[in-house]
Amino acid sequence: GNIAIAIHGGAGTILKANMTPELEKAYHAKLAEALKAGYQVLKTGGSSVNAVQAAIVIMEDSPLFNAGKGAVFTHDKTNELDASIMEGKSLNAGAISGVSRIKNPIKLATLVMNNSKHVMLSGQGAEEFANSQSVELVSSDYFHTDRRWNQLLKLLKDEPDSFKLSEDKDDKHAQQSKNPQDLNNEHSAKTAQLTQWPDDDKFG
Amino acid sequence: TVGAVALDHSGNLAAGTSTGGMTNKKFGRIGDSPIIGAGTYADNQACAISATGHGEYFIRAAVAHDICARVKYKKVSLQQAADEVIQEKLKAMQGDGGIVGMSPTGEPVFSFNSSGMYRGYIDKNGKIFTAIYQ
């Protein structure tokens, strides 16, 4: 039968005026890479669930999108990730929420669907389940990008004093932002420009 | 937020969504992405949907399931069902965002009411398409 795949990388206020030609090219290239990864699975007879996973993992690993690497920061300066997956044949589904050490949340959601009786697991419990499934846990630093860190800093500067971010010097994220290597990273440099982006106001 | 929907050789649909959530979120807040029926839904008889946008509205509007239910019960096309929910129902609630969908015969569908959505497809003819703006 027919095979086909479609993806999205998030919706919102995306203005051409704020996009450099290089960044726009980078987005198109990453979208195409994700599509081809998923389509390859379908072409070789693989399942739609595996194709969806393959496409999403490419976008989770890219700092261009708000998922996995490049995820936004919470008020508490952490990254909390959510994911879900569903198969149309059996209406079986799996979801996880509020995890901070799972490199590819869509893979854990798929394990919940296939290897548990549950539909959704959250927070520490989801990470314990991940452990039981031998899923690799990464350091929470893995998710840090300057772009997202600066977005949080900018927001917290505008918030009432009680929410102000402390300037303690030994704050590991603050230190990480000053890491020249990070700043030299091509993607970080490009996406750091996005801090000029007029963010919309759906925060917190 | 990122998402994907697919149709395989056996005619099975699947949908998936993954997100970092909302900047500056507090109290363990989650949006629609991990909520089956709101941010993600798949049913071989109707469609596969992955949604992205202001989660609270997508949950209250049960967006992903609502689109599939309209296809199934109203017998309308996936594009029409998606537009009814995203361009009318969600907009009336002041909710912004969009969805990517796949029909049981392999038609990819987009519907979004914001200025842009990173999106793309490879259709049943193998044609690849990517886009950002409206």
Task: Describe, in plain words, how this protein is organized in 3D.
The complex is a heterodimer of chains A (204) and B (134). Chain A contains eight helices and four strands, in the order E-H-H-E-E-H-E-H-H-H-H-H. Chain A is of the alpha+beta class and 204 residues long. In chain A, helix 3 links the parallel strand 3 and strand 4 (120-122). Chain B has 134 residues and is α+β, with helices and mostly antiparallel strands. Chain B has three helices and eight strands; from the N terminus they run E-E-E-E-H-H-H-E-E-E-E. In chain B, the strands form three sheets. A four-stranded antiparallel beta sheet of chain B has the order 3-4-5-6. In chain B, strands 1-2 form a two-stranded antiparallel ribbon. In chain B, a hairpin with a 5-residue loop joins strand 1 (2-7) and strand 2 (13-19). In chain B, helix 2 packs across helix 3 (78-92). The mean pLDDT of chain B is 97. At the A-B interface, strand 1, helix 1, helix 2, strand 2 and strand 3 of A face strand 1, strand 2, strand 3, strand 4 and strand 5 of B. Strand 1 of chain A pairs antiparallel with strand 7 of chain B.
How many H/I helical runs of chain A? 8
Give the N-terminus to C-terminus distance of chain A in angstroms: 44 Å
Strand content of chain B: 35-45%
Unreliable spans of chain B: none
Mean of all residue-level pLDDT scores of chain B: 97
Give me the count of strands of chain B.
8
Report, as a whole number of angstroms, the end-to-end distance of chain B.
18 Å
Task: Give the radius of gyration of chain A.
Answer: 18 Å
| Largest interface, Cβ cutoff 8 Å | A-B, 87 and 77 residues
Strand content of chain A: 5-15%
Query: What percentage of residues of chain A falls in helices of 4 or more residues?
Result: 40-55%
Number of DSSP-assigned strands of chain A: 4
Oligomer: heterodimer
Please provide the ordered H/E string of secondary-structure elements of chain A: EHHEEHEHHHHH
